Amino acid sequence: MAGNRTMEIPVYLFMGFLESGKTTFIQDTLEEDYFNDGERTLLFACEEGMEEYDEELLKRTNTTVVYVEEEEDFNRDFMLEKVLQHYPDRVIIEHNGMWSVENLLTEMDETPLMVFQTIVLVNGATFELYMNNMRSLAVEMFKIAEMVIMNRCTEDTPRATYRRSIKAVNRRVQVLFESEEDMGEEEEMLPFDIDGDEIHLEDEDYGVWFIDAMERPEVYDGKTLVMKSRVYKSIRLPKGCFVPGRHAMTCCADDIQFIGYLCHTNHAKSSTVKTLKNKMWVTVTAEIKVEYNKEYGEEGPVLYAKRIEAAEPPVDELVYF
Description:
By secondary structure, the chain is of the alpha/beta class.
């Protein structure tokens, strides 16, 4: 970089498939006071959709657009060349949903470009189609996103289901829904009863409960849970603890994760506790408490086992989202 200008340049990375609303969202962002402050913006547009950039807006917001047609052209040398040519204060990338995000981040290494914010735009009408046919590409975007904005939603959009599918990939991502009309908050329809003091999970409902307990732990605080799960033990866990959980497929057969919450066994009334082994199936009856735990690094559901019994594996051992 020229002179003493060697500082990092913030990158706003907007991701999503074709017709997800990226261009419109970026133009709205450029109009915001905190963005429209006279600083130079370099915009890499890696996809040409139905919406075109408003030339008047670009001039007014001191924004230069560089179109990138081929993924192989969007490499480290190209980025550095354009940064030196346009000397931006910040960079926006409208990424092509069919291109690898991992490749992009690799090419950004050893450049002054540093990702500052990551947002995924999703068309609510085509979400299920892309998740069924291009799941690995969608998951790659969700994994690094700070926020997912699902637009074009209707009253028939299963927002709770879609939110869980995204949260299963990235627990910390914020998921927002937008529609032309204000539909209010969707009431969560769960496949199990949470009104009583004791919750009995069917085998196929584990994934739904896991995500909901992560998002709304206060709903389960003080309740007793009965569920079938697999045992995970490790010397890294606190003494007298294990993790009852399930293996979940969030992307494909190569992306299977074990998901579960920490469980204390100090007060369990079963000799099974002494013989717990990794991978064995058990039925756990436990009280849920919401408390800070260093394993999580924050507050979350912690189980306190009342009873643990050996169990037969479920018909389908995998959890799906």
